[in-house]
Amino acid sequence: MIITEGLSKSFGKVKALVNIDMRAPKGIDGLIGPNGAGKTTLIHILTGLIKPDSGNVEVMGLEPWSKRQQLMKMLGVMLERPIFPQKVSGMRYMLHATRVKGLPESEAIEALREVDLLDSSERKIAGYSAGMMVRLGIARAMLGDPEMLILDEPTANLDPKGRIRLLRLFKKMHSEKGTNFLISSHILPELQKVCSWVCMMQEGKIVEQDYVDNLLDKYSSQIYTIKVSRPNELANALRNLGLQVKVKGNTIYIRGEALVIRRKVPKLIGQTDEEMISFHQLGRNLENVFIKALRRHNNRIG
Known about the structure:
Blueprint: E1 2-11, E2 14-24, E3 28-32, H1 39-46, E4 54-59, H2 68-72, E5 75-78, H3 90-101, H4 106-114, H5 130-142, E6 148-152, H6 160-177, E7 180-185, H7 188-194, E8 197-202, E9 205-211, H8 212-219, E10 223-228, H9 231-239, E11 244-248, E12 251-255, H10 258-271, E13 276-281, H11 286-301
Parallel strand pairs: 3-7, 3-8, 5-6, 6-7
Antiparallel strand pairs: 1-2, 1-4, 8-9, 10-12, 10-13, 11-12
Helix pairs in contact: 3-4, 4-5, 8-11
């Protein structure tokens, strides 16, 4: 879906991107990193807004500058700080956008409904909150059912309910329409809920990139916790599998090979007729992965 090779970009003495080699597959992909990591610069290059100093780029098989007109027919884009005409209503703005694209007006109405702005669509954009403007930008990007949406900080300024609704919409669009996504965010728990693949960036460099499950397996703790109704009986059975086990109250802490634990423990619980209250791996989240991957990256270059 997206391929970059040796991509670098500087603004004066500031190195915004340094030798970026990225292979982003089809699906819902995430760009992770703190503010200033280079995510927005990379998105501007991918969408043909700026050129790199060096390196090659392909988005959906097309080079973003020489083939930009063709590429933009396949993409929907929302930049980090979208700008809108303030004196028109959200509906009028969206209807104008459909006419420019040669689309039926019904698409504007449906897009506004999807981002929960239809009831506010007759209000002037000047009266929209920051979160409403973000949703309007996403609605604009959705027009025409693009093959891929590139969204820079799409959940910024949204309340928790709005963020959840939006993430569910992204998953729905991917499952029902096959829409691909590249979503930039510094809020890792949100990306973990929707992304199957992520690229982690820091100071213009790639720290790590892979499918989310692979990264969670690679960097998460080898310790699992299980809460059951009768822990001592299950703990003895787990020890017989060669696993390191410790019991505290009704919680069992298990250390061992992840595949063995995930495959055999649920079966064992079923055989012992235990009531499982919870079962999870400690530190299995993207925040933990990013911290460990960054530490490993710094040690490697240091």
